[in-house]
Specification:
The complex is a heterodimer of chains A (306) and B (192).
Chain A: H1 4-30, H2 36-58, H3 60-110, E1 124-132, E2 140-143, E3 156-160, E4 171-180, E5 185-189, E6 197-202, E7 207-214, E8 220-226, E9 236-239, E10 256-264, E11 271-278, E12 287-291
Antiparallel strand pairs in A: 1-2, 1-12, 2-5, 3-4, 3-12, 4-5, 6-7, 6-9, 7-8, 8-11, 9-10, 10-11
Chain B: H1 5-24, H2 38-50, H3 52-70, H4 76-95, H5 103-125, E1 130-131, H6 134-161, H7 169-176
Helix pairs in contact in B: 1-2, 1-3, 2-3, 2-4, 2-5, 2-6, 3-4, 4-5, 5-6
Classes of the chains: A alpha+beta (306), B mainly alpha (192).
């Protein structure tokens, strides 16, 4: 025999908690960024920050142990790869020295004195990652620097690659600051489902929007690249830093994002889809830099579509 | 579960420790692309030992804390973990399982339910981007890792919750066993 009172109590508890969850969900979506639940989240994150910082530091040996175990398994393969890499680099070095001479001469001809790559005057602030989102649907991490260190909303964040043997820039755009407290900040990564960055392929200049492929942090998609533009594998994609009459990109022009690995050519579509391998290693970010200042206006392009 | 301030404190501390460990350690250890999920394991363990009402309350609280700490959409985790806690609790109440290895399939099922349902909720709410098939691999790895962690986590939760449990499933199983034979002076091996 079952107890009717217990059954009623059980059902009421389930219905109550489900209803409460739905109410919170609805209210969260309905309110503005300054609403009750958003403020509650900010407060909770500020309260959790010291605990997370302490736990992150105290338990770093545990993480290091697992990383070491994983690295040991990969070491043999890496050894072979690195030997091949050394051979390849030796031949490339000889080619590069020849090219360097050529470039010096060409530079003199066209007056190219600007340094390629990273935008200047951005005042980077280094920060340590103290926590990260536990699932692939919300790709974010928390850093141990906040508004007290000059960090503000929407500032770009860069991270290094974990593979120093790779060609191209040693790091790239990782995301942007989406929430700031006094001593911490939350960074939404490029791999988050909601992110999108205006970018262009260098040196061809084909522009598009970099979006993630949720669940695959080693592959970003550059969408809305015009079908007629020729895109080749291995070329570098950087932020376009577009500036139209009323709209301006959050990211300054020239921050490397990744390199082109594949192009989906669909004759039916007007646009082509370009796959990018990001320079930042989203799975192993321990340190990041927040670019706390925008470069001078000359660093941004006038208008870049889309 | 006997609802007392001590029991609430124990469950609250358990959830906090699980959350901090999850965010600071487990989320940063990737094994074959996936990661263990301690929060859902703790919710399943509490529901397994304490029943459906405590299970869904713990699930709600765990989801609420998780959303607060990670900045994810408030209410989404609570909704799914409430259902997970209730489901595991009902399994215990209806089937009255007592096998020592049962936490492994229970943890695997609870984790599978959590990752699939949370993916569905997230997908319905605010994921506008394309989803890679690798997500499925990560989900499977999470389920397997949680199945591996199930026995120690469930044992730890049981030890912590034991003073507040109305009825311990493992204790009940022990009582059902026939007493072992003993000799006339109460020593085993001295049977006449």
């Amino acid at each position: 025999m079952y107890d009717k009172k217990a059954v009623r109590r059980r059902r009421a508890a389930l219905a109550g908690f489900v209803a409460l969850s739905l109410v919170i969900l609805t209210a969260y979506f309905g309110e503005s960024a300054g609403g009750f639940f958003h403020a509650l989240q900010r407060g909770a994150q500020e309260a959790f920050a010291p605990i997370e910082t302490g736990a992150s530091k105290a338990l770093k040996p545990v993480r290091d142990f697992f990383d070491w175990a994983g690295d040991s398994i990969d070491a043999k393969d890496q050894n072979e790869q690195l030997k091949e890499e050394v051979e390849r680099l030796r031949s490339e070095l000889a080619q590069a020295q020849t090219r360097r001479r050529d470039v010096r001469q060409l530079r003199g001809l066209v007056g190219l004195q600007r340094q390629e790559g990273f935008p200047e005057g951005t005042e980077p602030v280094a920060a340590r990652v103290i926590a990260r989102s536990p699932n692939v649907w919300y790709s974010s991490l928390k850093i141990d620097k906040g508004s007290g260190d000059g960090i503000r909303l929407n500032q770009p964040v860069i991270a290094a690659t974990s593979d120093p043997s790779r060609r191209g820039p040693v790091g790239g755009l990782a995301g942007k600051v989406t929430r700031v407290t006094g001593g911490t900040a939350e960074v939404t990564l490029l791999t988050d489902g909601s992110s999108g960055v205006a970018a262009q392929i260098m040196p061809a200049g084909a522009a598009g929007v970099v979006k993630p492929e949720v669940g695959n942090p080693r592959d970003l998609l550059l969408d809305f690249v015009e079908g007629g533009k020729r895109v080749t594998e291995g070329t570098i994609v950087v932020t376009s830093g577009f500036k139209a009459s009323r709209v301006e990109s959050l990211f300054p022009r020239g921050i490397p994002i990744g390199e082109v690995t594949r192009v989906d050519l669909d004759e039916v579509e007007l646009y082509q889809r370009v796959h990018i391998r990001p320079f930042a290693d989203f799975r192993r970010i321990d340190m990041v830099q927040v670019l706390t200042r925008k470069p001078p206006a000359a660093e941004t392009a006038d208008v870049v579509t889309p | 579960m006997i609802l007392s301030p001590g029991a609430l404190l124990r469950v609250g501390l358990l959830l906090l420790v699980a959350l901090v460990l999850q965010l600071s350690v487990l989320s940063q250890i990737h094994i074959v692309g996936g990661q263990a999920d301690l929060v859902v394991l703790v919710v399943a363990a509490v529901a397994y030992y304490a029943g459906s009402v405590s299970g869904c309350a713990t699930g709600f609280a765990a989801g609420f804390l998780l959303d607060l700490a990670t900045g994810a959409t408030m209410g989404a985790s609570s909704l799914v973990l409430t259902a997970v806690g209730y489901g595991v609790g009902r399994l215990r109440e209806v089937r009255d399982p007592s096998h020592g290895l049962l936490p492994i399939p229970v943890a695997a099922a609870a984790t599978a339910g959590w990752v699939v349902a949370f993916a569905a909720v997230s997908f319905m709410l605010d994921i506008g981007a394309r989803v890679s098939p690798l997500v499925i691999r990560d989900m499977v790895v999470t389920v397997l890792l949680n199945a591996l962690l199930a026995l120690p986590v469930f044992a730890g939760c049981r030890r912590l919750l034991r003073p507040s449990l109305v009825r311990d499933p493992l204790e009940a199983r022990r009582r059902l066993r026939p007493p072992r034979e003993a000799g006339p002076i109460g020593l085993r091996g001295m049977e006449v």
